[in-house]
């Protein structure tokens, strides 16, 4: 069983192509035009062991919102396609990841419903070249199109560390939740 996807989306604001392999080795090729966002997606790929190729061109001369939102939407679509009928997956998982003075907790449920609860405050408008408030919107977009629940909290003094801890905790929880453990649909409904 191969759990991979190749998806594309072109709008007047963005042109994005994504390849994803849930059973990869953490290889990545990321280019979004937003350097800090590239770094976060690379970290996600490495710590989730999901092979990820993201090639995105967007109107970053205006700001980074459209690009990051659309990458989130398309990554969610790729995930949904790659995970398939979800037969045998662990489904729910969580991770706590420290990074220096910061710590993030992320819990997910690949249950077929989208809900995103992010309890995160950033002190600065920017983290590197990325607008900090777009982080929450990225996860909301991913959750919506992937149809999964994401609950995340982060605390600490440094925005870079908090953000990176969130992406790493998301990676670790996703890696655990997609593991094949049995041969059933993990739901009393019989479908996810």
Summarize the structure.
34% of the residues lie in helices and 31% in strands. It is of the alpha+beta class.
Question: Could you explain how this protein is built, in words?
Answer:
The mean pLDDT is 97. This protein has four helices and ten strands. α1 packs parallel to α4 (159-177) and α2 runs parallel beside α3. The longest helix is centred in the middle third of the chain and has 19 residues, at 65-83. The chain has a single domain (4-177), classed as Imidazole glycerol phosphate dehydratase, domain 1 (Ribosomal Protein S5, domain 2). The radius of gyration is 16 Å and the shape is globular. A hairpin with a 2-residue loop joins β8 (126-127) and β9. With 192 residues, the protein is α+β, with helices and mostly antiparallel strands. It has helices at residues 35-48, 65-83, 134-146, 159-177; strands spanning 4-10, 14-21, 28-31, 51-58, 92-99, 102-109, 115-119, 126-127, 130-131, 149-155. The strands form three sheets. The protein has a four-stranded mixed sheet with strand order 1-2-4-3, with helices on one face.
């Amino acid at each position: 069983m191969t759990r991979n996807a190749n998806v594309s989306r072109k709008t007047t604001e963005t042109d994005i192509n994504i390849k994803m392999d849930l059973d990869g080795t953490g290889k990545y090729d990321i280019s979004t035009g937003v350097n800090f966002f590239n770094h976060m997606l690379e970290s996600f790929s490495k710590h989730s062991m999901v092979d990820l190729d993201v090639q995105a061109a967007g109107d970053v001369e205006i700001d980074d919102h459209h690009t990051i939102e659309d990458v989130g939407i398309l990554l969610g679509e790729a995930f949904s396609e790659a995970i398939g009928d979800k037969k045998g997956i662990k489904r729910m998982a969580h991770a706590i990841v420290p990074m220096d003075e910061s710590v993030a907790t992320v819990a997910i449920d690949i249950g077929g419903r989208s809900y995103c609860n992010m309890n995160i405050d950033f002190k600065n408008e920017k983290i590197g070249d990325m607008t900090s408030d777009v982080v929450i919107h990225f996860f909301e977009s991913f959750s919506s199109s992937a149809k999964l629940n994401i609950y995340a909290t982060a605390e600490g003094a440094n925005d870079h560390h908090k953000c990176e801890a969130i992406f790493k905790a998301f990676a670790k929880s996703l890696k655990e939740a997609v593991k094949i453990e049995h041969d059933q649909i993990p739901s009393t409904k019989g479908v996810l």
